[in-house]
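[Q] Does anyone have a clean structure-token version of this?
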Amino acid sequence: MATSGTTTFTVTRDQIIEAALRSLAVLEEGATPGPNALENASFSLNLILKKWQSEGIKLWTIKEYTLPLVPNQTSYTIGPSATYNLNAAKPLRLIQAYLRNLSNATYSVGEISLTSGGTGYTVQPTNPAATTGGTGTGATFNLTFTGPVVTSVMLANTGGSGYAVGDVLTMTGGTFTTPCTVTVDTLLSVFTDMPMTVISQQEYNILGAKQSQGNVNTVYYKPWRDYGELSVFLTPNTFTAENYNLHLFVQTPIEDITSANQNFDFPSEWFLALKWGLVAELASDYEKTLQDKQYYEEKALMLKNELMDWDIEWTSTFFQPDVRGGFNRSFR
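[A] Here you go.
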């Protein structure tokens, strides 16, 4: 049985609009919507997208931002232009944060490419084989060869430390005339990360001495209309700003759809729900009966709810008491 071998099916704005209008029985097979119908449906689509992004956190909208710290600066702005401290889409929510120590990175070897297979190999190279050359130490590799040359080099137990991209490493294992060499293409930078406490506005407001300097351990995020504002505690001093940066896991907005041939900022499994969501939204514009509207709305809601239940992490969730306010903290 032959299959396509692809999994990249996608749709454009106008394809979704045409499919929705056909389901409403207002567009004949093979016909093209007029400009007014396209403009109206496109407007409704964007209204749907803006509403849906407020209904739970979708996995594909979670992104990691890296925020450089500035000495003596407590608050940082995040927005879609260079006028903000971080030029990025405004986060809708801050989910998690950690502080990364850049001063103790090991820079071990990651990916490599075979530069030369060498010559004159008569004995299987010793595995794992040590290396010479480059700026670091400790990387070892497993070598295989065909005839007198090495044909494959794989990273063994350790990538060592202190290497740089572009380092040329010479293998010292085996019996050879000219040794095999590899080039370091990427590094595995091992850092120390410290989790941050994400707090509410009330908790941030009651923090004392917000300008006190030291290592950041707490963050508070407030989304404004056009940008977001992140406040940190403690305020970074010069050492912290030079040796650490702040990593933020945020929920980002769903991108607008603005022209006919644009694809949606959605995974492909959401396309059917998008179509029927638009059908339900447009039903009133085309004077459908109450029974028809009810059918469209029920189908659209069913498809969306199925995806909302599916688009979650399939891992364990742990709960623990929030004791930041003390053991006598009351809940209502």
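[Q] Thanks! Anything notable?
[A] Residues 108-188 form one domain.
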